[in-house]
Amino acid sequence: MEDIKKEENKQEVAEETKGKITVVTDSDTPEGAYVHEFTKPYTFEDKTYTRLVFDFEKLIGDDLVAIENEMAAVGEYALSPEISTSFLYRLAAKAAGVGSDVIAHLPIRDFGKIKNKSRDFLISTGF
Prior knowledge:
127 residues; three-stranded mixed beta sheet; 5 helices; 17% strand
């Protein structure tokens, strides 16, 4: 009987936090995607993330053009995108399907790891 009460309580807690925490299961993860697990949940604009999935392989040329346009709109330019922090974090945001502000406001340890994964991907394509 006690086990049933515990299970019901777990379900209630899960329902309460369902809208607050983004949950991604292994079945949602594309093959070859980079999964970044946060050591503690990351909250940005009332949305909490426990991990982000970066599917760099889904990106197309228009995504690169959109990143360049976004940078130009704020007066930034990337002469060498593979070493431009601004370009790389925006590339990561596109790969994760989140706004670039989500990545820009990450703690520096997470930001650096994600930026480096973007760079590694870009270089692996021969860019």
